[in-house]
Design a protein that fits this description.
The protein is mostly helical. The chain is built from three helices and no strands. The longest helix is centred in the middle third of the chain and has 24 residues. The radius of gyration is 21 Å and the shape is elongated.
């Protein structure tokens, strides 16, 4: 599945520009690792911060009144 996305990116780059410019090993490595790194940082951040949405804060304010 991931290889298909890289192939589609390379194909679109080639057909739009006529050559593969800017699609190097760094782009491929970023495609493989970025999602996992963001997930790990999210788990680490959730240990120290508690996030609430506007809707949950609004419900809490109504319940208090």
């Amino acid at each position: 599945m991931l290889y298909r996305k890289i192939f589609i990116t390379a194909a679109l780059t080639f057909f739009c520009l006529g050559y593969l410019d800017g699609l190097g090993i760094e782009t491929v490595l970023a495609a493989f690792t970025m999602g996992k790194v963001v997930g790990i940082i999210g788990i680490y951040t959730d240990k120290f911060f508690y996030f609430k949405t506007y809707k949950t804060l609004k419900k809490t304010d109504k319940e208090i009144k």
